[in-house]
Amino acid sequence: MTPAQAAAARESGAALVDIRSEAQRSRDGGIPGATCHPRNVLEWRLDPECEHRDPKIAHRDVRVILVCDEGFQSSLAAATLRRFGIDATDVIGGFQAWRTAGLPIESTASG
């Protein structure tokens, strides 16, 4: 979905999950209200059957919208999550498209 569609879906109750690394979020900022689960732990956090799941969003009745840096990793990750029965999709163009669209961003730089 486009960044604007993702923002609207979040307003309607979808979960926005930022799968970028901490270094990328620190460098570029984050999306206010997004849950952050880096790509390397995403399946553990979103698999409803996993003991390490995120209890707020690892449900088959929650729409999950993934955001990576440019929209490539998130497409593959959404396909994986759909195999768990998760209603998953991603943002076309990722965080970079979100920023270009002028949607809200917050600083996540530490220090």
Set down the secondary structure blueprint.
Layout: H1 3-11, E1 15-18, H2 22-28, E2 35-36, H3 42-46, E3 63-67, H4 73-83, E4 87-90, H5 94-100
Parallel strand pairs: 1-2, 1-3, 3-4
CATH architecture field:
3-Layer(aba) Sandwich
Contiguous low-pLDDT stretches (5 residues minimum) are none
CATH top level class name: Alpha Beta
Radius of gyration (CA) equals 13 Å
Structure description:
- With 111 residues, the chain is an alpha/beta fold.
- The chain has one domain (3-100): Oxidized Rhodanese, domain 1.
- Helices cover 35% and strands 14% of the residues.
- It has 5 helices and 4 strands, in the order αβαβαβαβα.
- It has helices at 3-11, 22-28, 42-46, 73-83, 94-100, and strands spanning 15-18, 35-36, 63-67, 87-90.
- The chain has a 4-stranded parallel sheet, with helices on both faces.
- It starts with a helix and ends in an 11-residue tail after the last helix.
- The mean pLDDT is 95.
Could you give a short description of this structure?
By secondary structure, the chain is α/β, with parallel strands linked by helices.
